[in-house]
Amino acid sequence: MSSEAPSPRSVLVTGGNRGIGLAIAKAFLANGDKVAVTYRTAGELPEGILGVQADVTDEASIDAAFKAVEEAHGPVEVLVANAGITKDTLLLRMSEEDFTSVLDTNLTGAFRVVKRASKGMIRLRKGRVVLISSVSGLYGAPGQINYSASKAGLVGLARSLTRELGSRGITANVVAPGFIKTDMTAELPEETQKDYLSRVPAGRFADADEVANVVRWVASDEAAYISGAVIPVDGGLGMGH
Ligand code: NDP
């Protein structure tokens, strides 16, 4: 084993200006990597993190963001597709727009950034793709037909990507958080939060850091032989799904 410290990698986290994405960005920064995040609306970012504007529903803005990151940090070696939205409502009230807009951000958005990142990774002959899914993707959740479908789709994306690019030193994995304390979950009615809590074996909700540490690890050299996996970070909520 070499005693040299590994060289810093170019890491890009979509939707990394707040919530789980920001926690992930900070974890890579603490690891010594060169970290960039996409944001839609400008805000304060911690020192050392490069912010690039991008909307994952807009291919041109993704391309511009990648170019800026490549110029500053080199080709993206670790991509975390984290940007996501919810538009929860019961099936009979869900409009087609509610469905397709969530798919467009959560699933097609991941496809767009993965496709753009894969060019550089193929050239580098190495790369780590981590897709942020959700316990809802495999367990299901009432009111989340759009969201669950988008998050389940990420599993197929990671597994097909593994079969296409696995021989080139590239891994693709899914991290599936349960209930994490962020703006997204703060919006949920108190009754819904209580109901979720009663079903979490761990008996608590998690901090974003608990997801971030798993993402950092699955993107590390130590996890080089893990690909196409779905790694739950849910306190046992979705066990077996
Ligand atoms: P937040 O709502 O706190 O943050 C969402 C992030 O996604 C923001 O940075 C937001 O940017 C960005 N985003 C949304 N739409 C777009 C878009 N079209 N283009 C670019 N960026 C976009 O969510 P969380 O931090 O809670 O969630 C992060 C991820 O984790 C999501 O994929 C979510 O589905 C998943 N997740 C969260 C769970 C939880 O309990 N919180 C549980 C399971 C999964 P902006 O600031 O510009 O709006």
TrEMBL record:
Organism: Sinomonas atrocyanea
Key words, A-Z: Oxidoreductase
Superkingdom of this protein's organism: Bacteria
SMART domains linked to this entry: PKS_KR
Limits of the Ketoreductase domain: 9-183
InterPro entries per the UniProt record, alphabetical: KR_dom (IPR057326), NAD(P)-bd_dom_sf (IPR036291), SDR (IPR050259), SDR_fam (IPR002347)
Protein name, per record: 3-oxoacyl-(Acyl-carrier-protein) reductase
Keyword Chloroplast annotated: no
Signal peptide region: none
Pfam name, any one: adh_short_C2
Molecular functions (GO terms): oxidoreductase activity
CDD domains found in the cross-reference section: BKR_SDR_c (cd05333)
Homology family: Belongs to the short-chain dehydrogenases/reductases (SDR) family.
